[in-house]
Amino acid sequence: MPGAAADGAIVNPAGAAEQAWSRLQPERWPIPLAAFPHEAALVGGAVRDALLDRLGEAPDLDLVVEGDPLALCRQLGRRHGGSSVVLDAERSMARLVIGGWSIDLARRDGPSLEADLHRRDYTINAMALPLADRRQLVDPLDGLTHLQTMQLVAVAEANLLDDPLRLLRGLRLAGQLGFELEPTTAGWIGQHANAIAPVAGERVLAELEKLAAAPGGEPWLARCLELGLLAPWRHSAWSGDEVQRLMRCSTHAAQQLGWSEAELSSFLPLARLANVVDAEALERLRSSRKLQKQVQILRRWQEQLGGAEPAIRVTTQPQPERLQLHRDLEEILPALLLDWPTDVARTWLGRWRDESDRLFHPRPPIDGLSLQRELKIPPSPALGELLLYLMQEQAFGRLHNREEALELAQRWLTCAQRAGERAPRRD
Hints:
Blueprint: H1 13-24, E1 41-43, H2 45-52, E2 61-65, H3 69-80, E3 83-88, E4 93-98, E5 101-107, H4 113-117, E6 128-130, H5 143-149, E7 151-152, H6 157-162, H7 165-177, E8 180-181, H8 183-191, H9 201-213, H10 217-227, H11 240-247, H12 251-256, H13 261-274, H14 279-284, H15 289-304, H16 310-315, H17 319-329, H18 333-337, H19 342-353, H20 368-375, H21 381-395, H22 402-422
Parallel strand pairs: 2-5, 7-8
Antiparallel strand pairs: 1-2, 1-6, 3-4, 4-5
Helix pairs in contact: 1-2, 7-9, 7-10, 9-10, 9-13, 13-15
């Protein structure tokens, strides 16, 4: 009797190709199949995801061809539109971006399609669908069986070392797919973890971000730390506190707090990354400045509020400090709350979702230009201090409208002027 996955996503080998093509829906592709060379074959993640029935609306398509992929990419771009980009001239790899789709073209590595597949990273990525025969699944390394058994198996130890990013990619794939690492494969990754050091930071970060976004990514990120895969970019050894906080950054914990799908996709990866790398490491990985700043702020407040009863620690702080917390974390507050008691975290989340809550979303009650015009004052550093003072008064409920803001601002200016007059002069 033919084997199948428990959820019915993977069909028997005889029908696997037909099932995969029905899910790939090539009639929706921006380039018709007939436009590709006769010997072209779809390989890699699109084949895997089609067999697992986890394709997105516009999956990334990877094809291998015998001829010149760079010339083919330019030709397809001229005929069908889109933008062609050379990914790696030395290895003959190009990309066509068209209508929200990404189509990568590469020269076949070896004398045959089977030889090409033997040079790939993991068996589940070493399957191919020839475009000329939609009844054939080329699977020389038993990748379909490994999909069924939910095991990630490396093709060969040497293949992992050919591109050491594949070491990290193994953990990322396991986290994304909910697979287990086959023991020999796990041993190779642990043995050669330090080989990842020369890999470009941008490539490492791309894998890390995918893993951080995976529903079950937290234990695999912890394993990255334990194996030393991130050691080249971290100044310090990983700590037990980091791993404990990381393990609390689970999809289940976020759902318990009532996070929406949008909040899950935005803040759960950030919370996980902040427990794995600091801002300096992210700079070495060439991340955006925005991500560096978010992680720096989140880690700083985690340290300041760490330990028991973080909400009590907040309420015992001076009001300027409390206001600064909400100014710093206004865009990313949910990422801080995963480590908090559920009832307190839910209360804070509810207030954060209320855009009119002026403590959780601090704003001056009046803008600087209006203050200058209404009170006839020039721009100066004192104006910034005044705006911050008015923001604090509004945040803590002592100021409610524009008229009160103008009245309070006038009193503040008068007091500041008198204080200046009383200050001793320096000759």
